């Protein structure tokens, strides 16, 4: 996979691309990263990328020329000419980001993420250039760099070979449609708090059942809207009845 980020602050991505899972994935050749300053695609001698909005109002608006120029340059220079990239605009107005979207994007060959600043984007960028608009939450940030890092992290960890344990991404919270079950490690007893006996039993079927039940319990307690009553098994319905009695 190739991931390009269009930003006015490419220096923000240096350590991010080199550290932890991102760095290891790049070393293995699983993903290629590039941060591009779209200011260099400005069409005026002062390299301005924003201007006052038509009709008046506060704030500045990103001009279309630098963004179009940067995306078109990346596409023409791509070593995957047959694959059209997904061009993603990071924007508070965009589709709320979720795990299913991360899984969808992880199947692409080329992602281009556009990090905005100022008041907003010229509307022609939305209408004629981007394929997706994504928001990571109902709040406003200074720019799109942190949302871009969020999307990149969530996508790269899903790529085959990126994680040391391939099952980790599969069992993550939200990947299964439920929140993940609790985890424990050594010591077996810490300050009189003991690890559940079933996890020490070595009985794999009982451990798997415990994990499914605790995953459902945590989802029921914290994100009940994620549970579809029509898709519950008989055992899951009985567990929820047990949770209700306990409550």
From TrEMBL:
Q: State what this protein does.
A: Specifically methylates guanosine-37 in various tRNAs.
- Where along the chain is S-adenosyl-L-methionine bound? 116, 136-141
Biological source species: Marinicrinis sediminis
**Which EC class is this protein assigned?**
transferase
Report the catalytic activity. Answer: guanosine(37) in tRNA + S-adenosyl-L-methionine = N(1)-methylguanosine(37) in tRNA + S-adenosyl-L-homocysteine + H(+)
E.C. no: 2.1.1.228
Question: Would the keyword Ribosomal protein be found if you checked this record's keyword annotation?
Answer: yes
One GO cellular component this record assigns the protein to is: ribosome
Biological-process GO terms, alphabetical: methylation
Any one Gene Ontology molecular-function term assigned to this protein's record: tRNA (guanine(37)-N1)-methyltransferase activity
The organism's lineage is:
Bacteria, Bacillati, Bacillota, Bacilli, Bacillales
Task: Fetch the Pfam families from UniProt.
Answer: tRNA_m1G_MT
Q: Does the keyword Cell division apply?
A: no
Q: Which residues cross the membrane?
A: none
Source domain of life is: Bacteria
- Report the protein name in the record: tRNA (guanine-N(1)-)-methyltransferase
InterPro entries linked to this entry: Alpha/beta_knot_MTases (IPR029028), tRNA_m1G_MeTrfase_C_sf (IPR023148), tRNA_m1G_MeTrfase_TrmD (IPR002649), tRNA_m1G_MTases_N (IPR029026), tRNA_MeTrfase_TRMD/TRM10 (IPR016009)
Quaternary structure, per UniProt, is: Homodimer.
């Amino acid at each position: 996979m190739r991931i390009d980020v269009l930003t006015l602050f490419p220096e923000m991505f240096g350590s991010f691309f080199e550290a932890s899972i991102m760095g290891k994935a790049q070393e293995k050749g699983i993903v290629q990263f590039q941060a591009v300053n779209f200011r260099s695609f400005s069409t005026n001698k002062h390299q301005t990328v924003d201007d006052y909005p038509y009709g008046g109002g506060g704030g500045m608006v990103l001009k279309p020329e630098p963004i179009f120029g940067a995306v078109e340059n990346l596409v023409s220079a791509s070593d995957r000419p047959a694959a059209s990239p997904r061009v993603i605009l990071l924007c508070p107005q965009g589709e709320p980001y979720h795990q299913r979207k991360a899984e969808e994007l992880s199947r692409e060959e080329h992602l281009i993420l556009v990090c905005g600043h100022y008041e907003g984007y010229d509307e022609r960028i939305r209408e004629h250039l981007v394929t997706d608009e994504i928001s990571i939450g109902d709040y406003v940030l200074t720019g799109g760099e942190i949302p871009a890092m969020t999307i990149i992290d969530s996508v790269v960890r899903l790529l085959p070979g990126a994680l040391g344990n391939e099952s980790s991404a599969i069992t993550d919270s939200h990947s299964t449609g439920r929140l993940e079950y609790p985890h424990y490690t050594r010591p077996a007893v810490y300050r009189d708090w003991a690890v559940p006996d079933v996890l020490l039993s070595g009985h794999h079927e009982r451990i798997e059942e415990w994990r499914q039940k605790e995953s459902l319990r945590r989802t029921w307690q914290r994100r009940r809207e994620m549970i579809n009553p029509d898709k519950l098994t008989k055992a899951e319905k009985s567990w929820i009845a047990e949770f209700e009695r306990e409550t």
